[in-house]
Amino acid sequence: MGSPSAVPVAALSLALCALLAAVSRAQQLSPAFYDGSCPHVDDTARRVIQEARVADPRILASLVRLQFHDCFVNGCDGSLLLDDSPAVRSEKNAAPNNNSARGFPVVDDIKAALEHACPGIVSCADILALAAEISVELAGGPYWRVMLGRRDATTANFEGADNLPGPTDALGVLREKFASLGLDDTDFVALQGAHTIGRAQCRFVQDRLAEQPDPALDREFLSALRQFCPASAGVDERLNNLDPATPDAFDNSYYVNILRNRGLLRSDQAMLSVPDGAAAATAPIVGRFADSEADFFRSFATAMIKMGNIAPLTGDMGEVRRHCRVVNQS
Ligand code: HEM
Ligand SMILES: *[C@@H]1O[C@H](CO)[C@@H](O)[C@H](O)[C@H]1NC(C)=O
Questions:
Q1: Residue whose CA lies nearest to ligand 2 atom number 6
Q2: Which residues contact 88 (CB under 8 A, 6 or more apart)?
Q3: Are residues 83 and 188 in the same domain?
Q4: pTM (2 decimals)?
Q5: Is 69 a catalytic residue?
């Protein structure tokens, strides 16, 4: 025993250590990922978003939503950004995104600015993570250190995008869709707080306004919505503020609205108002965030980092796309 095998065993365990270190390094996102290779990545993205915002104040909301729709489908891999091609059935045309997800030209502009500054370095998946944080911050919400180092997918998942959480999904289904990705009830309630900014089309609320309206809808709010979103054809795409109290400010009034039965989407209000005790897990969290904006901000930042960690491609997986809409060499 010992001497003949000691050296190989030591060498092997050293090699194993190196391998494990490499693997854990490869899987670990880090706020410092581009410090050496593209140190001004945040400033560059921020400048493009600031410019876009002048003409389109809604862009901040739209960019936050893009990260959600990216991360929930095959993880945060930029798959959402791929256009239709012979090899790719674009997620952009799946029901939750079609004529709804927006902001893609601004993502292209950020990518172009970063390709100019540091060619081939910053992934499209990381651009979505950065853009989400910058947008929340610019709208008055919390700051967090964005984890970076994701790489881009070479495929998309249309069916996965079709299965994104929807406004008419039951509360239990919604909670399960989040839980299956490692997001607990606090994350679930906090992340929906992104609806403190942005717009929703009439077609997403009309089912609540029918002859037998959603009982969990304030009567005054109901009649205002019925006026703005009449069932008659032609107003399906008319835009409502998701947070009518402070439409463009990232604050906690979204939760205050829900306490007053003024959540816009069925899925917003469901966190408080599903009967038979089904909202027992989420209702207290809604109350907590309505009481304390600081608590909401902390939980939102934590949940965004968790959501951003869903199944990233790292190390040698995937690629860094040159253009976010197409895989490389195609
Ligand atoms: C229960 C889960 C969710 C459902 C059912 C849901 C559903 C929706 C719907 C139907 C719209 C309106 C889209 C339109 O009218 O075109 C919307 C908008 C939006 N969603 Fe969600 N959402 C959910 C969770 C989230 C999460 C987790 C985030 C981000 C962290 C988010 C961020 C946004 C933002 C910012 C908008 C406004 C976008 C804009 O104005 O362009 N949502 N959501
Ligand atoms: C997306 O919307 C367009 C325009 O409304 C429609 O023509 C098209 O069929 C939709 N795509 C899918 C895949 O449903």
A1: 98
A2: 82, 155, 156, 327
A3: no
A4: 0.93
A5: yes
